[in-house]
Design goal:
The complex is a heterotrimer of chains A (598), B (247) and C (324).
Chain A lengths: L32 H18 L3 H5 L5 H11 L18 H11 L4 H10 L4 H6 L2 H13 L4 E4 L15 E4 L5 E12 L6 E8 L6 E6 L5 E3 L13 E12 L3 E2 L5 H37 L1 E2 L2 E2 L4 H37 L4 H11 L1 H26 L10 H8 L9 H17 L6 H12 L14 H25 L7 H31 L5 H29 L2 H14 L7 H15 L5
Parallel strand pairs in A: 1-4, 2-4
Antiparallel strand pairs in A: 2-3, 3-7, 4-5, 5-8, 6-7, 9-10
Helix pairs in contact in A: 1-4, 4-8, 8-9, 8-11, 9-10, 9-11, 9-16, 9-17, 9-19, 11-12, 11-13, 11-16, 13-16, 14-15, 15-16, 15-17, 15-18, 16-17, 17-18, 17-19
Chain B lengths: L1 E5 L2 E3 L7 E2 L4 E2 L6 E3 L1 H16 L5 E7 L5 H10 L3 E5 L6 H15 L3 E5 L10 H8 L3 E12 L2 E8 L2 E8 L2 E5 L11 H7 L4 E4 L8 E7 L8 E2 L5 H11 L4
Parallel strand pairs in B: 1-6, 1-8, 6-7, 7-13, 8-12, 9-12
Antiparallel strand pairs in B: 2-5, 3-4, 9-10, 10-11
Chain C lengths: L2 E5 L1 E2 L2 E2 L1 H16 L4 E6 L4 H5 L8 E5 L9 H15 L3 E5 L2 H13 L3 E6 L10 E6 L4 E7 L4 E5 L14 E4 L12 E7 L11 E5 L9 H11 L2 E4 L1 H5 L20 E5 L5 H7 L4 E6 L12 E4 L2 H18 L1
Parallel strand pairs in C: 1-4, 1-6, 4-5, 5-11, 6-10, 7-10, 13-14, 13-15, 15-16, 16-17
Antiparallel strand pairs in C: 2-3, 8-9
Helix pairs in contact in C: 3-4, 5-8
Classes of the chains: A alpha+beta (598), B alpha/beta (247), C alpha/beta (324).
Chain lengths: 598, 247, 324
């Protein structure tokens, strides 16, 4: 695993079998002045237009949300990564992620924003013809037209290709007649453009259509009553003999499912970005409250139980963020590499993103669950006030929950993580067998107690992470061997394997980020970040052990089980470390700054 | 018509002030800096409006500071300033700052100089007046509305106990406050354009300060709040009268 | 060598804060073994000018030019410089208000003099000529040393209590030759606010925040203010929402005030707001949220419904006034 040449060519999923040098990852401490200014514009936009109006937004005051979208459009925030030729600003993917992150603190607005700029715009941008792009993209980039995406149906959610919506070519060959019922359509209430998925005749696969609101035969149900993100327009959309001109077929016939999947890859990592922004905001609010609220004569931020929560919120958020921007950079690099080889930039972007689909799914799951943790403890830090609808945690708590459900449920994404990894191995794109056999061999041999190990600032953590990789390879390798085709049906084991992969990726990303940061700022200036890394790796070791143990016990027995359990213990072993003191240090810094500050 | 907008870099309004070096300096570690709100929200935006409406031809920004002030200068450019001048010095007092800026302004010859009514760090509100005096120009403080026609400005301003409307000829220095304009957020176009706009670094002229800050002090902690029952406002009035002696 | 102080008046009535400035100048004169001279500009009766002696000036210079009834900062500065030359003054005092802020920096430039704006203390002569002033909008104080020969101070009103003495000032008319530029700013119209107490000078202030729920409830704030003879103010969100005019906004990006009593109703006490009011001598906070951070900066606190408490407090003040 000491393959350091061809660093730049590290491919999606390869984190499992190769070592990534710290200098090759992007870390958020590297934002340049322009990116920071864009971020500030987003923050100011929320502070000025969104945050003061959250109650009105949640009441779905007529015209308010489209107005906010117009305001965002006027600032250029709807066209960040759209090419300049289509009226956008041609910024890189990381900058678009940063914008999504900053606006992620905008509750329902961030949902409307993400739906418009993501699934509402990207299918046309990536798969549209020049004519389609010229017609729709500039208006979507400026916000003059708002976009929505119609995939889900009442009976087809996670199983998207099973939808009942149908399109039929008219006899004159000029139109498709679209019929169907679409559900959970974000921005439906004010969207001008719908990207609609339906099967043509009795096709096996979906096709996609660009449908304008002004086409005949479109009706909307009233707004859904939702647990959270109440300000986001969510309606059912009905297409009753809706006449769609043939030139509005997007991409080729039966290419719809591929479009849906590829757009989701981008949507997933961006959802991760948005939830990270929300997490930071909630942490800042919670810290502020903990500093103000006094009990027994002292601010509650002085108490260890509260400090633990604040530190954990920050640790998890920092770790999620490390992973999200590492993968964002990888996607960008892969895209740039493909463009160099002569690929069309838009195709390259899709391909580059697809390469990191495993990482995107990991980030979606991890960052949304981090936010769930952060809001839950946010409510707890607020105590009784946390349960009051007058205090801010109520909205954060309710709004957070959807993130584990949309853009593919976290369960679907967990399965995809493992499934994509195995498929790539099967296709020979990813050599899992070699490393897995090597680990199996190691199990038989005497453990290496070699005393000649180097002792540098990160040597221990790097050793732990190398161990985590062995643990995943061992458990996944033998699960595949034992269960073969059956594995796909053993969802509990797939969940275990996914959890192991997720923790590995996030822990490694955190380690790489802190290593790079120490290189930039020196050890003294990164004390809290080093503590964050150590606590997270400690946690990841336990989580990987627990998931691995569950998996092993479900499919192995006898000597094999004993041997694997010994291996798992060895691969997830970490030295004793005072996590309590580390969390205290982290919390002290956060409390002093009175906000999330890493 | 050429406008010079004086901007000052100040700590963000949410900054908690902490002292260091035996209370002789303010601890700036971790401080986020912004353009002084009065300079940005009112002076700069009004200047930009005058340019957008075709009245002004050039909007220049000027600040006195070292290289660490460049991010806020570029924010000013992102909002729409045409070019910026940074006088490369750590100024000690308003007199020195005013001299640096006036000396530069003389080399260009501005018609209208705009600044905020005061900076939120040292709260002097004196640099603008001093520049006016150094340029032998008129000055109007606490402006709430500025209209320009030809070579005169009609300015509504706050006076002691009311408001008045003045007419003044160029060149003039006007210090702005709420009412003059509405704050804006830099848009993507502006942010991207800011990169390529000129930011000229100018060596300061020789000018000495006439005051120095020797030390700082934090406000004393309040003794603690005395709570009064909402049903007993007579008691509150009595406390304000006999204990606090304020009514 | 006398200490020179610029006196302001409204239509011939000397402002209370100008008496403070006069008393302050007299005290500095005492410390520096000299006398204090007041400079008064515009139309005002001698009988009113004589009152200045009560606060320690021996001499009043009066420039009785009618044109000076309006603020013409350059003319005011010319008059101050003429008076300073006549008196050989090395220390010049003005108020830290709209007039003083427009005049003092001009004089400072003309005389190459160090200026401390918004002084809160007498000069500490042991360390040089050191004055205390608020910085970061009241989040801290700075001690500023003036190193030039001539020294100029603008005094923050309400910094020292007035103690009337006895004594009469000699009045001397002063003729100043003004140039054209001294009246370069043409005043087109003046709109004086009458009746209300001006916020910047008010000793008592009643202020409302978002907890007032809406502009329709402001009558309750005004009723209490009227009963107390107080000015009214508001927090930034209230001004931004258009419930109240912007000149009532106090805080770091609005006005900074230092009244004797500041009653904050339904204001949570964000750091930016505190910066604008924490120079107040006594702060009363009324808020329904017992956790509102403002309570930490308050002398007296009441937890409860803002509207109800305002009604009761106004009644209590009324009763108090009747019995006094």
């Amino acid at each position: 695993m000491n393959d350091t040449e061809a660093v730049k060519a590290i491919k999606g999923g390869e984190f499992l079998i190769r070592e990534t040098p710290a200098e090759s990852v992007f870390i958020p401490e590297e934002w340049n002045e322009e990116q920071l200014m864009i971020a500030e514009t987003c923050t100011n936009f929320l502070a000025q237009h969104v945050t003061p109006n959250l109650a009105r937004i949640d009441e779905q005051e007529e015209g308010l949300m489209p107005h906010l979208m117009d305001e965002a459009g006027a600032l250029g925030l709807l066209g960040i990564s759209i090419p300049e030729e289509y009226g956008g600003f041609g910024k890189d993917f990381k900058t678009a992620m940063l914008v999504t992150e900053k606006l992620g603190a905008g509750h329902s607005f961030s949902v409307a924003f993400s739906a418009h700029t993501g699934i509402g715009t990207l299918p046309i941008l990536y798969y549209g013809t020049d004519e389609q792009k010229a017609k729709y993209i500039p208006k979507l980039a400026s916000g003059e037209w708002k976009g929505a995406y119609c995939l889900t149906e009442p009976s087809s959610g996670s199983d998207a290709n099973s939808g009942k919506a149908r399109a039929k070519l008219t006899e004159d060959g000029k139109h498709y007649i679209l019929n169907g019922q679409k559900m959970w359509i974000t921005n439906a209430g004010f969207a001008d453009i719908f990207t609609v998925f339906a099967k043509i005749d009795n096709d096996e696969n979906l096709s996609a259509f660009i449908v304008e609101k002004t086409f005949e035969g479109i009706t909307l149900n009233p707004e859904e009553h939702k647990m959270g993100i109440k300000g986001s327009s969510t309606r059912q959309v009905f297409f009753n003999d809706c006449k769609v001109p043939v030139e509005n077929l997007l991409s080729e016939r039966q290419n719809g499912f591929k479009i849906a999947v590829n757009i989701l890859n981008l949507g997933r990592i961006k959802l991760g970005g948005g939830t990270i922004g929300a997490s930071k905001e909630v942490i800042s609010t919670a810290i502020n409250y903990a500093n103000e609220r006094e009990q027994f004569g002292r601010p509650i931020s002085k108490y260890g139980a509260i400090r633990y929560k604040i530190a954990e919120q920050a640790i998890k958020t920092y770790a999620s963020e490390s992973a999200a921007y590492r993968a964002s950079e990888n996607m960008e690099e892969a895209t740039a590499h493909l463009i160099e080889t002569g690929m069309d930039p838009i195709k390259a972007k899709l391909k580059g993103t697809e390469q990191y689909a495993i990482e995107a799914a990991i980030i979606k799951v991890n960052a949304s669950e981090t936010l769930n943790y952060v809001v839950d403890e946010g409510v707890q830090i607020y105590g009784g006030m946390g349960y009051s609808a007058e205090a801010p945690m109520d909205r954060s708590y309710r709004d957070s929950r959807i993130n584990r459900i949309f853009e593919g449920t976290n369960e679907i994404n967990r399965m995809l993580t493992v499934d994509m990894m195995l498929k790539r191995a099967m296709k020979g794109e990813l050599d899992l067998m070699g490393p897995a056999q090597k680990v199996a061999g190691e199990l038989m041999s005497i453990p290496d107690f070699g005393g000649s190990e180097e002792d540098t600032l990160f040597s221990k953590e790097k050793k732990y992470i190398a161990g985590f990789k062995k643990a995943v390879l061992m458990v996944a390798g033998s699960a595949v061997q034992k269960l073969m085709q059956q594995l796909g049906k053993e969802q509990e084991i797939l969940m275990n394997l996914a959890d192991m992969l997720i923790e590995l990726y996030v822990a490694e990303s955190t380690q790489l980020r802190v290593e790079k940061l120490v290189g930039m700022r020196g050890e003294e200036a990164c004390k809290e970040q080093l503590d964050i890394m150590r606590v997270y790796i400690n946690y990841a070791a336990e989580k990987i052990f627990k998931s691995g143990k569950e998996a092993i016990n479900s499919f192995a027995d006898g000597d094999e089980r004993r041997m694997m359990m010994m291996g798992l213990k060895r691969f997830t072993k970490t030295e004793d470390f005072n996590t309590t003191q580390a969390r205290r240090n982290i919390a002290a810094k956060l409390i002093e700054e009175n906000k999330y500050c890493f | 018509m050429k406008i010079l907008v004086c901007i000052s870099q100040v700590p963000d309004t949410s900054t908690k002030i902490m002292l260091k070096d035996n209370d002789t300096a303010v601890n700036t570690q971790g401080t986020t800096y912004i353009i002084n709100p009065y300079d940005e929200w009112y002076a700069l935006i009004r200047a930009l409006e005058l340019k957008e409406s075709g009245v002004a031809t050039d909007v220049h920004l000027i600040t006195v500071g070292k290289a660490d002030t460049e991010p806020v200068i570029r924010k000013g450019l992102a909002l729409g300033g045409d070019q910026a001048i940074r006088i490369d010095a750590d100024s000690v007092d308003p007199y020195q700052t005013a001299n640096y800026i006036a000396d530069y302004a003389k080399t260009v010859g501005y018609d209208l100089l705009l600044c905020g009514k005061e900076s939120i760090d040292y709260n002097n509100g004196s640099v603008g007046v001093m520049i006016a005096e150094l340029l032998d120009a008129d000055y109007i403080g606490f402006a709430t509305n500025i209209q320009v026609e030809g070579t005169t400005a009609t300015v509504k301003r706050e006076i002691e106990g009311g408001e008045e409307t003045d007419v003044v000829n160029f060149p003039v220095v006007i210090a702005c406050q709420k009412g003059v304009a509405e704050a804006r957020i830099p848009n993507m176009r502006g942010i991207m354009a800011a990169r390529t706009k000129p930011l000229n670094v100018v060596t300061p002229t020789s000018s000495a300060a006439v005051t120095t800050i020797l030390s700082y002090e934090m406000p004393p902690a309040k003794a603690g709040v005395k709570m009064v029952s909402p049903d007993n406002m007579d008691e509150l009035v009595e406390l304000l009268h006999s204990e606090a002696k304020v009514i | 060598m006398s200490v020179l102080v610029l006196v302001e008046h409204t239509d011939g009535n000397i402002k209370k804060k100008s008496f403070e400035a006069v008393q302050y100048a007299a005290e500095i004169a005492k410390k520096t073994n000299t006398t204090a001279t007041a400079l008064v500009l515009g139309t005002i009766a001698d009988s009113e000018l004589e009152n200045l002696g009560t606060y320690g000036v021996q001499k009043v210079l009066h420039v009785a030019d009618k044109k000076l009834d309006e603020l013409h900062a350059r003319a005011y500065a010319s008059a101050l410089i003429a008076a300073a030359q006549k008196e050989g003054s090395k220390i010049i005092i003005a108020l830290h208000d709209i007039n003083g802020k427009a005049v003092a920096p001009r004089v400072a430039v003309k005389l190459k003099a160090g200026l401390v704006s918004g002084a809160l203390s007498y000069p500490d002569l042991d360390k040089g000529f050191v004055l205390k002033k608020a910085v970061f909008s009241g989040k801290a104080f700075a001690f500023v040393n003036i190193t030039s020969d001539v020294k100029i101070i603008t005094l923050m009103a309400n910094s020292f209590p007035l103690v009337a003495g006895s004594g009469k000032a000699a009045i001397e008319k002063l003729d100043v030759t003004f140039g054209d530029k001294d009246f370069g700013v043409k005043v087109k119209s003046v709109d004086k606010v009458t009746g209300e107490v001006s916020l910047a000078d008010a000793e008592l202030v009643v202020s409302g925040g978002r907890g007032m729920k809406g502009p329709e409830n402001w009558g309750l704030i005004e009723d209490l203010a009227k009963e107390l003879g107080a000015a009214t103010a508001c927090s930034r969100p209230v001004a931004d929402a258009g419930w109240r005019p912007h000149h009532e906004h106090v805080g770091q990006t609005g006005g900074t005030i230092r009244p004797n009593l500041y009653i904050a109703v339904g204001i949570s006490g964000a750091i930016q707001h505190l910066a604008g009011v924490n120079g107040s001598k006594v702060i009363v906070v009324i808020n329904k949220d017992p956790e509102a951070p403002f309570f930490k900066a308050a002398n007296y606190g009441v937890v409860g419904d803002a509207m109800e408490i305002l009604l009761k407090l106004t009644e209590a003040v009324k009763k108090f006034k009747q019995h006094k």
